Amino acid sequence: MFVAAPPRRTGDHDRLTHRELRTNLVAMTSVLRFHLLGTICGGGLLLCAATAPAQDNARKSPEPAQEQESKQQAGQAAFDQVCKVCHGPEARGDGGPRLVPFNRGYEELLGIVRDGTGQMPPISARELPDEGVAQIVEYLKSLSQ
Question: Per the domain annotation, does 6 fall within a domain?
């Protein structure tokens, strides 16, 4: 069940931090998926839940080379626009730390990008959308192979 974190008091109005907003969004998404699954199945939730892993495995089949290459190119473009200045042209570190071999997940990288860490400043969703972060993850993984 979704339980919102109590907001922190700042001045005359309440505001949630980026981390609290992201946590609430993940929780709400999970609840909505559960309800949507029940609605689609028309009450046959057990049948849909039993067939869901098979659908996930089918989606995880190797992507066509062309589609995978286009994802990597999109990730490289996003990386070059936002990250290359500090992390270098192939993410091997210049002013910022080395990012390859890359072993982080999307959620972890998204948290680092949005909140910042060490000398890295936070990067807003306006400057780099969540989809761009996901593309960068794919690009960094391709560099790590």
Answer: no
> pLDDT digits over 89-124, tens only?
889 988 889 999 999 999 999 999 999 998 899 999
pTM score of the predicted model: 0.56
Tokens of 12: 């005359």
CATH code for position 84? 1.10.760.10
Number of domains in the chain: 2
Domain holding 120, by residue range, is 66-143
Q: Is residue 9 part of a domain?
A: no
Instruction: Return left, alpha or beta for 73; rule: phi > 0 is left, psi -120 to 50 is alpha, else beta.
Output: alpha
Assign 3-class secondary structure to 64-119: CHHHHHHHHHHHHHHHHHHCHHHHCCCCCCCCCCCCCCCCCCHHHHHHHHHHCECC
